[in-house]
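Repro:
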Amino acid sequence: MKFGNYRKLLPKIVVGLLIALIFILPVFTTSLVTLSKFVQIGFWAIAAMGFMLIMRTGQISLGQATFMGLGGYTSAVFMVKFGLPFWPGFFMAGIVAGLVALAVGVVAVRAGPIAFSIITLALAEIMRIIAVSWEPVTNGSKGLVITPPTHIMLGNFEINFATSAVPNYYFIVILVAITALIFWQIDRGRLGGIFRVIAVNPTLAEHQGIPLTKFKVLAFTVAAVFTGFAGSFYAHFLGVMSPDMYGLWQSIQALMMGIVGGISSLVAGPIVGAAVLNSLSDILSRLPVYSIKPTLFGAIVLLVLLFLPKGTGLIDLWRIFWSKVYKEKPITTDNTH
């Protein structure tokens, strides 16, 4: 193989090494603080991927927090009120979130893009009010105290989520990997092409016989299902579910992570955005400055929109960097991942 071919394989090798490092990280550290941070990043990465999938159809959802909360509350209620273990509640969390998205989406997407954003924003507030008011089920503003996921026995080997952060770490890594794989397959296939046509020119798409409502609702529902899964697991990881955990700010965070990571990428962009902004959030939370986090997050989004080429984000700097290494013209508008 020629040297030039080896050089062009280098980006893939670097990415492969990073992925391998993620999978073997607990070999180097089992620190609760470190692994918890990666669990948090994984949770936000799934929420941001869901936001980006909806955005692929030209819709801006301001209600991702709704489905985080629905997922958390569904599994929490199943455990506390019905005495069921984590696993049935986990799968029900995705189903309930998906069904709510399906019911709301059929109405919301017909109202137009602006109304869709307003409806999804209102939905999050409605869910919060219900969670506060429906005390017999949700325990109101006090919230529900829940336990970690039920342990798993593989022969003589026990996976105990309550005694170590390692199983929780691998759970979120696998969940992110499954979500990323499904979303990547959607984006690179016929369905992803239809989504992009709808976003760019809905009138043309409709003239070509593409049912706009069907595909917009489909994207909204799929995003909700995986966000519900993530919300369920994260609630059990934290050990509590309360109305104040998910509101407008959490929905905006998912939006910011998607934009900062790069809207040209459905998978890599949200993961990078979640990793960067979530890590930055920890640093900012230690500063004794009021509202520094939302202010700086907003500033970062503006900088990305103003100074990076249109439709790009941090993930696109990777492609620009390697194009400079190869001394080629930068490619910043493709949809590779």
